[in-house]
Amino acid sequence: MTNTENNKRYALWTNDVEDHSIWFNKLRYETGELVMKEGMPILLEIYKKFNVKSTFYFTGYMAEHFPDVVSMIIKDGHEVASHGYSHEVHEAFDVLSYKDQVEHLSKSKKLLEDICGYKVISFRAPALRVNSDTPKALAETGFVIDSSVASQRFDMFLSFGGLKKLKWLTAPRLPYHTQPDNLFKKGNGPIVEVPLTALMFPYVGTTMRIFPFITKMQHTILNAENKINHKPIVFDVHPNEFINEESESRTIERRSKNFFSYLLADLVRGKLKVKNLGKAAIPLYEKEIEFYQNRGYQFVTVKDYCKAQGLIPN
Ligand SMILES: [Zn+2]
């Protein structure tokens, strides 16, 4: 393989930083604290070890309550990005009005920019829930890159807003300019979509921890795909996967009205999702990074990837 071809291999390692407790299946201030004190240092250590530059999507809530969680990534050259203001189910972007989306975006943007001192231009919606107002709200508030679409990922009842996410099945696989009112379709709108990687199953930390053999199969196929179309690998992990709250006792709360959604998204998921949490996740994650590192991929931030590809101005 020539060097130029080599340069086209990109791994975009992304992190969603929120106060969601996987163990309790709910948002918790104490979990936010653990994310900052335990989960984030573990991740930053791994990235340093493998010389990975990565993108961190913070909720405004985290930036407001734990500003250090944002400043701790800056000196290592990672990108500060927005994960909305709140991760509450009833405040997801597909249920917020246009006005409220704009408000959540500007609030989170300002909180983050006050800490990092540069323009925050990348966004990922909490729970990946967006609607036709979202691209307009993003453009209105100065965002340029979205990463909320998981092309060819099939969730159904396994996550919230599952049915609406059927749009993922037909979304383009390679990064693209979206339509002004549709993030799932190619167009000439101002927002660039960098889709999360998926092959039916999401290519994320949760799959890696619960079904490591699926992740292995996925990376073999993704690497083959990349050789053909240069699709960047976009992995999504959460620092709350590297903390362990198992010493605290729990009951699983019902979040969904729909029975199947309750059964799968709350009960089954609640039991499965805690597998390989905390320190057990470290070797799995390191192996995933090594797979691409051994094959000459460059680990860059979402923003730097878009600049290198001419998707956004330099
Ligand atoms: Zn999230």
Supply the key terms.
314 residues; alpha/beta; TIM Barrel; 5-stranded parallel beta sheet; 11 helices; 40% helix; binds zinc ion
Q: How would you describe the overall organization of this protein?
A:
With 314 residues, the chain is α/β, with parallel strands linked by helices. It has a single domain, classed as Glycoside hydrolase/deacetylase (TIM Barrel), CATH 3.20.20. The protein has helices at residues 3-7, 29-50, 60-65, 67-74, 98-116, 134-140, 205-210, 212-229, 259-272, 281-293, 302-308; strands spanning 10-17, 20-21, 26-27, 55-58, 79-82, 122-123, 145-146, 176-179, 182-186, 192-193, 198-199, 201-202, 233-237, 298-299. Strands 1, 4, 5, 13 and 14 form a 5-stranded parallel beta sheet that branches. It has a 5-stranded mixed beta sheet with strand order 6-7-10-8-9. A two-stranded antiparallel ribbon has the order 2-3. Helix 5 packs across helix 6 (134-140). It is globular, with a radius of gyration of 18 Å. 46% of the residues are buried. Bound molecules: zinc ion. Zinc ion (ZN) binds at residues 16, 18, 83, 87, 126-127.
Give a topology summary:
Blueprint: H1 3-7, E1 10-17, E2 20-21, E3 26-27, H2 29-50, E4 55-58, H3 60-65, H4 67-74, E5 79-82, H5 98-116, E6 122-123, H6 134-140, E7 145-146, E8 176-179, E9 182-186, E10 192-193, E11 198-199, E12 201-202, H7 205-210, H8 212-229, E13 233-237, H9 259-272, H10 281-293, E14 298-299, H11 302-308
Parallel strand pairs: 1-4, 1-13, 1-14, 4-5, 6-7, 7-10
Antiparallel strand pairs: 2-3, 8-9, 8-10, 11-12
This protein binds zinc ion.
The site of zinc ion has 6 residues, from loops.
